[in-house]
Amino acid sequence: MDLGFPFANPTFNPQLAIDGVRFGKAIINCRPQCMQRNTAPMILLDPRQFSATKPAGGSFTTTLTVEPTMIAVDGFSVTTSGSLTANVTQFRVDENGHLVAIASVSGTLTASEPTLGTATITITNVRVVLNADVDADCSGHLHIDFQGVLQVDATVVFTATDGTTTTLHIHKTVPLQGSLDYTATTQQQQSLICDIATLLQNPSSVKALVDKLNTLLKQL
After folding, report:
1. Residue range(s) defining the domain that contains residue 53
2. Which of 46, 173, 196, 205 is the S-S candidate for 136 at Cβ 3.0 to 4.6 Å?
């Protein structure tokens, strides 16, 4: 089933929706579009959380993973896992001065339970906000770790091996994480990545770091 993701606050405080470059948690609400096809997406993030930055124009492509995570649903122990293809299209600074990445993700998650069987959730071109932890060197190597929390809010149908079906509503959070490795292909890209490596030595230069990352995106 197709899902839409309105953003929610990991601590249900609209002033603290995104917290920290390293291992912070970005929460995304996941709702099946087939259940609410005429409902407009609802964004629960405070607009002041982001500095004004125009879309970069290019993108990094990587994989975000939901590692097998056991969640309790209506007395059943359901294991959720899967992978999403992410196109990172922009970097921003949140209101706390931390680096976040904007990405569009697609893929599938699988929910399984020994007696109920399995269910599949399809995600298509969903916009997510992730905390980003960047490393770089002057040889042109760029590494970024992404991490957040995916809040699944979906009604799914499990199918057992004998064909029996069971419908459950899942409203739980699961970890979402991944990383990106990129090597410069031009001298200009290598120079930009070297600038990024230099800026990483200055923790007060997050806005300048964002500018360099978005300039690099434009060259992809």
Report:
1. 3-135+142-183
2. 196
Q: Which residues contact 165 (CB under 8 A, 6 or more apart)?
A: 157, 158, 159
Residue pair 84/103 in contact by the 8 Å Cβ criterion: no
- Strand 7-8 versus strand 141-159 pairing type: unpaired
φ/ψ (deg, to 5) at 48: -75, -5
What tens digit of pLDDT does each residue of 5-52 get? Answer: 444 444 444 444 444 444 444 444 444 444 344 444 444 444 444 444
Task: Look at residue 50 and tell me if it is in a domain.
Answer: yes
For residue 154, is it within any domain?
Answer: yes
**Total domains present in the chain:** 1
DSSP-derived letter for residue 9 is -
Domain-located, residue 210? no
Q: Judge residue 219's burial from the number of C-beta atoms within 10 Å of its C-beta, 0-12 exposed, 13-18 middle, 19 or more buried.
A: middle
Q: Is residue 169 part of a domain?
A: yes
Picking from 68, 93, 92, 94, the residue whose alpha carbon sits closest to that of residue 82 is 68
Q: In DSSP terms, which residues pair with 74 in a beta bridge? A: none
Instruction: Tell me the C-alpha to C-alpha distance, in Å, between residue 123 and each of 14, 24, 32, 152, 211.
Output: 25, 23, 9, 11, 30
